[in-house]
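Minutes, methods subgroup
Present: GH (chair), OT, SY

1. OT presented the first of two proteins processed in the latest run. Sequence and structure tokens recorded below as shown on screen.
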Amino acid sequence: MQICSQHTISLPDIYLFNFQKLLISSRNLEFFTNGYRYLIQILPAAVVAPMYFSGKIEFGVINQSVSAFNHILGDFSLIVYQFQSISAFSAIIDRLGEFDDVLDSSISKHLSELSEEISLSYCNFRNSLVLESNGSVPVDNCQKLLSIENLTLQTPTSKATLIRDLSLVINEKDHLLVTGPSGSGKTSLLRALAGLWNVGRGKITFYVDDADDPQLPTSSELPANEINTSHEKAGELEGPINRNSRGLFFLPQRPYMVLGTLRQQLLYPTWADDTTPMSDGAKPVGSLSFLMGKSNSENGGAKPNKPTTDDLIQVLENVRLGYILSRFGSLDSTYEWSSVLSLGEQQRLAFARLLLSKPKLVLLDESTSALDEANEAHLYRQIEAAGITYVSVGHRRTLYEHHNMTLRISTADPNCNKRNWDIESISSKPMYDFSSQ
């Protein structure tokens, strides 16, 4: 190949040249290792043979010498025999080293730019009610769940602006649908709400009940009943932030399937650390008291009571997955769930987790994309009946029926400082009817 003589080398030529070098190197390596393997078998016989022909040793000594030689030399030849594995391991180590260097550089760059970032905080909603001038509580005492103030969201690497100056408030039963073209920043907004992205500026506040979460510090530990999870305040929390314990739940498009039984799939993540089995009481099937009954604070804990076997069976029926019990035998069957369940079944299983945990607010990132419209409508009716407020990202027109507000995000223009979002109220008139399906 006359690749070197060309002034411009095309990409296929580079691939062909690299592949040719790989074949040559593999051939030379095989020649060396195979030649070495056969040579060490001949070498001891060649060394001992003159002594046999001169009559100094017997013929059996040759076999003993060859055996002893191969036994000792095999240990010293480990590196030669494992050249291919060592080279593959070395390539992996090189890639991991480069990846670690990139992470270190990004972390150092991030720490140097901490002067401006998104502030994520948790506030006790009971103490956030503003009293009127006469000292009475306002008439509109609907619980506030989420507040976003002047949020400008950027990508972590290129610092491209996705959302500019977003401000909104989500109260209880304010079901918000986030729409917009692909790449406009819908999923990125959920990442910022979940605390995964903090590049940009603005403030995100979740209003929670401190009675629901024993991890929340008391008022004596933090002033103004506020917990800030930004970089400067991260050290004020004793343990890692457990968003589920604060009445928040994040449901991605492809749910995480844990390694374990079907029971463990349903109890994840709220009861993932609870290994003590709970005995099934005399509750009849279908009495989901943790869905329709007392709140978390009334139960006296940070999370609902651990559901029984009957509750788990009933919630599978509620998400139309009751048939998988007959397919897999029982709740204690163990499989590779990400392989034996379709994506639609995994998404319905994730909704079962949601109904069991019953958070105050859930963030849904196209969580029904693999479901048909009838099952999608059924699941939204289930979580709405459970009193869960939800923020959804989706493209289907049928989603409008299950939300009362829409946030439309358009692609941000880098040459314009105007906001690229708009909030509208959705008409209560149903657009689609799935009651007969």
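2. SY then presented the second protein from the same run.
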Amino acid sequence: MRTQTMPSLDLKDLQEKLSIQFRPLQRSFEFWLRTADIYAGYKAFQVRVSFEKDVLKREAMWERQHEFAADKIYAMCSDMGGFFLKVAQIIGKPDLAPAAWVRRLVTLCDQAPATPFGGIQLVLKEELGQNLNNMFERFDVQPLGSASIAQIGYEFDFVREANAMERIQHFLYENNKKSPVLVPRVLKNLATRRVLVMEYIDGTPILKLGDEIAKRGINPDSKIAVTAKRNILQSLTLAYGQMILKSGFFHADPHPGNILICKGSEVALLDYGQVKDLPDNLRLAYANLIVSLADKNPMRVSESIRELGIGTFSKCQNEQQEMFKLAETLFDTKLPPGVTTLQPFAEDSSIKKIAVLAFPEELFSVLRTVHLLRGLSVGMGINYSCAEQWRPIAEEALYHAGRLKDVEFKSKVRKRRFFRRLLPRG
């Protein structure tokens, strides 16, 4: 008689496998649980605040509620890390969130929980094959800043990031007498899949620019401060406009933690772990949209939206006008007079009148870029149109692709020069 023995069951191994398998589900459940708690807090507060008739007291109550919610959002994103840190970076902008949220969440752009030094030291030794003391004159254990971890597989390959950095640096330096932004120089012999060493750029994080201006005793509304802010916005706008519309290959992780302000209002753009390479058809369709927005041409805007592959469903009669407003909200930085925070779900919002059914994945990074520039402009108190700033770059891209005739292109250039002479300086 034969007996069959059952394999021994390793409960610890089984527990670990189940834990790995269900971790995404657990994280998703935790996120929605904590989000529901924040939402419920706001709904309960709405009932409480409705009994207060004094306007000033009501505003003070709202401020305290926003601060309370901001602490909860900060804790949730900080605890869960990774993707949720990215979420905090996206929503923590002056044009999208209450001021209390912005103050709390901006710290996650460059002050996220850091990796223990022991782990970093081990990786450096494994990848570079030497002790730190043999490679570096000085090595600071305390990080200058820390942000979210790499998200999608290619972000873990720092050789890829180094190549992207060098490609963008070369493009910007080749296309300008002086590059609009500084791109750190890569130390090629110290770049591996898990380690990237680059030059140190001394500067002030853009989030702390206001504090730096105050520290120097400069009035933030003075001419020198406003000029510096305009130069910063102009540099970033030009760099992103050239990358997106002229090259198609661009820095795709636009948030304030990746921007440093150096001497003389120079701007440094950091972190090239996420880059996008727009296909020519999308790049040129977007160039067409930018020209249409700058020209305030609703019919061409509607055509460009369709050419971009953005699927929509209209719920209104004046479809072209609402489509134009929607395109401005999505792809331009200019806000209506007196508006500092977007209200996408307000009754008169174009998003409620024009439903977006399809949106190309490649355009999300373009969308984030526009919203970064808008958030910075609101924070600096400067309202401007990136579409108007990008129009010459977009027209040049269309001209070189044969989509703008020689006569038409030269006529547009002459017209811009003429109006430039008519406009007052400053």
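Chair's summary of item 2: The longest strand covers residues 186-191.
Next meeting: continue with the remaining queue.
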